[in-house]
Amino acid sequence: MVDFLDELEACIPALRRYARALTRDADHADDLVQDCLERAIARRGLFRPRGPLRPWLFTILTNLHRNARRTARRRGDAVNIDIIPEIGTPASQPGHLALVELDRAIGTLPLDQKEALLLVTIEGLAYAEAAAILGIPTGTLMSRLGRARASLRSLTGASHEPHLRTVK
Asked: Signal peptide position in this chain (predicted)?
């Protein structure tokens, strides 16, 4: 049987990746993961091992992030001066620009769509598992994914229809 702390430790890279994608700030993401781990350890008696620990941890992290956003909304927005680009910076390579554009587009998505998109695409979770983490029905998750993907196509100017080859 795997020890609780060993399983918890194995989940840290995935939690960090998800937190960084949610917050778009490495320091804030690390704080969020630390808070998640502290809460999980403090409340490990509440974990009922009906399945893997990972979904429970993602649920904790998601709820902590939502709470932090609500608190931040009441305080107002802070501008991180380190992320403001310099005016005289030369253009980057096209691939890098496309990634930056996609990152910015994901940042503009509503939180519910962003959470769904990141859990399914970045973390590779099944729809049912992601829906359980977010506390929503699977159909709702799929709707949020569809809206998120449509928004990203619109914001990045990507084609609405996949390129299909005609077979003759």
From this structure: none
